[in-house]
Each structure stands twice: as C-alpha cells, then as structure tokens.
Task: structure prediction
Amino acid sequence: MQPLGYILFPMTVTSSNPAPSAAPRGRDAVVDAVCEAGAELFAERGPGAVSSREIAARAGVNYGLLHRHFGSREALTSAIMIHLSEALGRAMENGRRSGRSVFAILAEQPGYARALAGAALDGFDMATLQDAHPILDRLVPFVSGGAGVGEAPLEDRAAVAAACAAFLGWAVFGSFLGPALRIEGAEGERAIEAALPAPSPVARTATRSINKEET
Result:
C-alpha cells in the first residue's frame, strides 16, 4: 500500500534509476548527488514512499555510501529536507530582490511543501524531521529586526509561523482552494498576502517587502 502522502499529493514520477552521466567521486560530490536525487524523489512522492536504495540508484552511487556519509535513514532524510529547504530559500531570496510574489515562487518550486505535507501525513516525527531550518533562520531575523529564533519576540516568531503555514498550505492546496473560493491570479494572491497576520510593525513591513508584486 502506498503511503498516505503519496496518495494525496502525487506528482509525476520518473524512473528512480536513470543512467547517470558519471558516477560522483569524493565525499562532497557523493553527498551533493544523494541530496539532489533524494530531493527529486521526495518532491515526486514524499519521504515515506522513497527507499534509500532508490535514492542511491537515482544518484548513481553505491548504496553502501549512504550509510558511510549519512549514518542513518533519519540523518539522510534530514539532509534531503534541508537541501530542499535551502533551494527554496535561495529562490525566495532571489525572488524578493526582483519583487516576485512568494506564491509564484512556490508554484514553480512546490517540492519542499509537498515533501513536508507527505512526511506529516505519513507519520514522521515533524519535530525532528530536520536538524536545521534555513528558511526560518533567514525569516525570523528579517521580521524581528535582526534577532534570531532564540531571541526574537514571540509575536514575531508567531508571525513567521503564520506566514509560512499560509504560503506552504497554498502551495499544496491552492489548486483546490483557489477555484473553490474564486481566488485567482495576482489580485487573489495579494488579497491572501494582505490577510496574513503580522502583529508587529517590523513584521508588517517585512511581509509587504517579501511579497511585493512587480510594478
């Protein structure tokens, strides 16, 4: 039986064992190839529907190297999720500089949101799914005026949580909610952005800056 996350959020599945152009050599190359391959598979089917052997095959590396470089399946899953998160974080940062909507960026790169949703539905321990959170580590100081997660006021951390929940939720459920509520296009995205809670003045400024549409 397929994991619940794959059943509810299927994506186009490609072969898990394409012929690689060249086998990665050296620890860094192997780790990069494994994380990239795992990111593709997690985005397609969710972590619960992907085996470690499939990841090794997609990466073009020996299965034994996964244990050597990652140690455990939990550590491998964490590394892949962080890889997805970092990729989305870079895309959001580049998009913010050019004034692109976060919704547009997530529509182009839904892999992280889908992998998170799949992991939650498949019963993963979400508190330990990742041992680092690159996007949150960027957003909290931006919203709080420089303070990190450990020092930022609760209301600013809550604003980040609410915004992330809304954006990630829309990445997964927007294709259902948009037509059902007749929320479409850039105007609809701006309306959702305006509805996001932002309790502090700094957070309100940050939300407007991150989500500003091109004019």
About this structure: The chain has eleven helices and no strands.
